[in-house]
Design goal:
Blueprint: E1 3-10, E2 13-18, E3 21-26, H1 30-36, E4 43-49, H2 59-71, E5 74-76, H3 81-100, H4 111-131, E6 137-141, H5 148-155, E7 160-164, H6 172-175, H7 181-188, E8 193-196, H8 199-213, E9 217-218, E10 221-224, E11 227-233, H9 240-244, H10 250-262, E12 268-275, H11 282-295, E13 303-310, H12 317-337, E14 345-348, H13 354-363, E15 366-369, H14 378-387, E16 395-399, E17 412-414, H15 419-431, H16 434-450, H17 453-477, H18 481-493, E18 497-501, H19 521-531, E19 536-541, H20 546-553, E20 559-562, E21 567-569, E22 575-577, H21 586-599, E23 604-608, E24 611-615, H22 621-639, E25 644-649, E26 652-657, H23 662-670, E27 677-682, H24 685-692, E28 699-703, E29 712-714, H25 717-730
Parallel strand pairs: 1-4, 1-6, 4-5, 6-7, 7-8, 8-11, 12-13, 12-15, 13-14, 15-16, 16-17, 18-19, 18-27, 19-20, 27-28, 28-29
Antiparallel strand pairs: 2-3, 9-10, 10-11, 20-21, 21-22, 23-24, 24-26, 25-26
Helix pairs in contact: 1-17, 3-4, 4-5, 7-8, 10-13, 11-12, 11-15, 19-25, 21-22, 23-24
Bound molecules: GDP-alpha-D-glucose.
């Protein structure tokens, strides 16, 4: 059976040591349920921290713990109290958590806790190495383990690795504050698939990868370190069945009866359920409730706000302060509005067992969920699912800052920073007629019943499989060792060899400024060695102008093709024009491009004899993308029925005479058909013309990702240089 190695900070069971005995508490988290309800049977093995500091365990009790966990298909990563302090409470919860939730003023950027984060991620990686078997799928969860994908990748380059982030991914403006932003991005990009709750988070991720690492996404795929990585949105669902059928459970019925007994006045309940966390906007909620009682005093004694605040991270300063603030606030509001027989707010600082939580969901007429930021928020979904089984349905008031808001648009959606909006929402909810509640809820309930946590897990794993297939297809275009041996044999045997080599993006990488792409010493050496073999003829076939090519490569014994074939220079002779073409069109195109230069800081126009190129490699990537589309559309509509074409390349828009292309230029050398070894390499659309005129037996190489007529794929200039050096060595 297929096995999934699930890796998360905490195991689905927590160990507690009581009077020298180990006890286990099972968590009913969404993730465990999701994996259990997959339609295809899988075996799950879990790796994570068992919830107890290793320094609190004797070697014997640790051995016993390991043994018992093993029986539950769990492998522990033991953390010391120092690890917990620095990695968990420190870097994870005092740096990443506030930063990713836009609370940057709460962030501590501290080298010691960063080092602990690296160290603990490394410990997780070692645990994976001990447990991984070829064929396993590795699924890593959440912000505590963002370095892990890359760490595992270095050990198992072929492993299938998925990563899911349960919290928001912030915009670039926030992420850039993190001194270790590059390491975090590289860590994540070790995965094959990176999942987020919402597409907005994926968008932020792409934007940061582009600005910080300079890699662009294409249809949700990023080419990174010789691999393709996919990122996408997978909104997490709930175990709908469990919540929508909970009234059938005797424990839940009993809990409902208890609540009925405790509420003899039939007060209308508003509930608020969260971990006690500053991101959840609990004080705003209490203040809005206070304002509501002032604005609509007729509701006094008729409503009650039940606040469940589950203890969380209670050693972190901000959480301690928040708890104190909530207690003061509750006291003040109760003192101000309460009467002998009515307390407006019931405040519970603890976790409730499932039956009591479900009973509260069933009894409450309104769920007031107002986070300032929340990756998803499952409580909102659970409340709606629970309500589906009763006649008198409740109303969900939901913050637009929760990921869940994009799926639950029929709820009363509010901005959590507006007290006024929350006050009005409370009134709207309490006044909403039953038919309207039912109609709106059933739309949302249908959606939740369809997109359950099981669907979420299977969609994620399916998408991971898909990207693995794409990677395999790409690997097929990669040269196998066998094909390489055959290539080297053909090279050695051949008596007259021909090389077509594109320049930018092929022999050398891209630079923000095109003038900086002059050949380095090593490149000159490689070309020199290759062309000094009398059996070799080398053609550098480029879109560059002839002046630049002369300056950079003029002293080498090679043929040069400039401006995609408009100009040729045979070895040992001067430049010649292949054909004289009209250039009057430039007067019309130039002012349009100039306008885009003004509107796009960092862009500029390069003029060549038969083409005009607008460059935007130095610009803000988002603005550049937008302007490229606009400019291309404007130019395409201007140039229809003209003998010129508009082409989109890597960070450029080029307008040039059609009829000039690298294919026609390559034909000049291929025409005689006297070569018994033809080799071509290129990276962009202009090289496709060259690939298409090559004889069947030619060896053609596309650099980078994307469809191509070339036979093989290479990741970048470094791989090509290595191959050319091997030829030179044979020569
Ligand atoms: C993170 C992200 C994202 C709550 N109180 C009790 C209790 N709960 C259960 C709820 C729910 C879960 O805890 C809370 O989940 P949330 O989604 O609301 O929030 P976080 O804990 O912050 O979770 C969040 C989530 O990951 C999943 O990806 O949605 O955005 O922050 O299932 O039922 N359960 C019990 N007693 C309680 O008192 N038994």
């Amino acid at each position: 059976m297929h096995r999934i190695l699930t890796i998360s900070n905490r195991l689905p069971v927590s160990a507690i040591e009581k009077d020298g005995h180990l006890e286990f508490v099972k968590s009913v988290g969404g993730l465990a349920t999701g994996l259990a309800s997959l339609t295809t049977p899988v075996k799950t093995h879990w790796i994570g921290w068992p919830g107890i500091a290793s320094d609190d365990l004797t070697p014997e009790s640790q051995a016993r713990l390991d043994h018992q966990l093993d029986k539950m298909a769990c492998s522990p990563v033991h953390l010391s109290s120092r690890d917990i302090q620095e990695y968990y409470l420190g870097f994870s919860n005092e740096t990443i958590w506030p930063l990713f939730h836009y609370f940057n003023l709460y962030c501590r950027f501290d080298q010691v806790s960063w080092e602990a984060y690296v160290r603990v991620n490394q410990a997780f990686s070692e645990a994976v190495c001990r447990n991984y078997e070829p064929g396993d799928t590795i699924w890593i969860h959440d912000y505590q383990l963002m370095l892990l994908p890359e760490m595992i990748r270095t050990h198992f380059p072929e492993a299938s690795i998925g990563f899911f982030l349960h919290i928001p991914f912030p915009s670039f403006e926030l992420l850039r504050l993190l001194p270790w932003r590059e390491e975090i991005l590289r860590g994540l990009l070790g995965a094959d698939l990176i999942g987020f709750h919402e597409y907005d988070y994926a968008r932020h991720f792409f934007s940061s990868v582009s600005r910080i690492l300079g890699h662009e996404q294409h249809l949700g795929h990023i080419a990174f370190n010789n691999r393709i990585v996919r990122a996408d949105a997978f909104p997490m669902g709930i175990n709908y069945e469990r919540f929508s059928q909970c009234l059938k459970m005797p424990d839940v019925q009993a809990a409902v009866n208890t609540l009925d007994r405790q509420n003899p006045y039939e007060r209308r309940w508003i509930i608020s359920v969260d971990r006690l966390d500053y991101t959840k906007g609990i004080p705003n909620r209490l203040e809005a409730f206070d304002a509501f009682l002032r604005a609509y005093p007729e509701y006094k004694r008729k409503v009650k706000l039940v606040v469940v605040a589950v203890p969380s991270r209670d050693e972190v300063d901000q959480y301690i302060e928040l708890r104190e603030r909530l207690e003061l606030l509750t006291g003040r509001i109760n003192g101000e509005h309460g009467t002998i027989d009515w307390t407006p707010i019931a405040y519970l600082y603890r976790s409730l067992p499932f039956d009591e939580l479900a009973a509260l969901y069933l009894k409450a007429e309104v769920a007031l969920i107002t986070p300032l930021r929340d990756g998803m928020n499952l409580v909102a979904k659970e409340y709606l699912a629970t309500n589906s089984q009763i006649k008198k349905q409740g109303v969900l008031i939901l913050s637009e800052m929760a990921g869940a808001a994009s799926e639950l648009s029929e709820a009363v959606v509010i901005n959590p920073s507006s007290k006024d909006e929350i006050v009005k929402a409370l009134r709207t909810a309490l006044e909403m007629p039953q038919e309207e509640r039912k109609r709106k809820n059933s739309l949302m309930q249908d959606r939740l019943a369809r997109y359950t946590v099981g669907r979420w897990a299977s969609d994620f794993l399916h998408s991971l499989q898909e990207i693995n297939v794409i990677q395999k297809e790409m690997a097929m275009k990669k040269m196998t060792q066998e094909a390489k041996t055959q290539l080297m044999k053909a090279y050695t045997k051949a008596r007259k060899r021909l090389f077509f080599l594109d320049y930018d993006g092929t022999l050398i990488g891209f630079f923000p400024d095109p003038e900086s792409a002059s050949p380095d010493e090593r490149l000159v050496e490689i070309i020199d060695q290759l062309s000094s073999d009398p059996k070799n003829e080398v053609v550098i076939i480029s879109g560059r102008d002839k002046q630049t090519l002369t300056r950079w490569l003029g002293n080498l014994d090679v043929n040069l093709v400039a401006e995609h074939g408009a100009f040729l220079r045979h070895r040992g002779s001067g430049w010649m024009v292949r054909e004289t073409l009209p250039t009057a069109w430039k007067d019309m195109i130039q002012p349009v491009m100039a306008r885009y230069v003004d509107r796009t800081p960092g862009s500029f126009v390069e003029e060549k004899s038969y083409s005009l190129v607008w460059h935007c490699r130095r610009c803000d990537p988002d603005l550049a993308r937008l302007r490229m589309h606009e400019l291309r559309d404007a130019l395409v509509s201007m140039t229809t029925n003209m003998e010129i074409g508009v082409f989109e390349g890597s960070k450029i828009i080029e307008v040039k005479n059609i009829g000039i292309n690298k294919g026609a230029a390559a034909d000049i050398w291929l025409g005689g058909r006297q070569h018994d070894f033809v080799f071509a390499a290129g990276d962009d659309y202009t090289d496709e013309d060259m690939f298409s005129v090559l004889p069947d037996k030619a060896y053609s190489f596309k650099l980078g990702q994307g469809a191509s007529k070339a036979k093989y794929q290479l990741m970048g200039p470094d791989s090509l240089r290595a191959l050319l050096s091997e030829f030179a060595a044979v020569s």
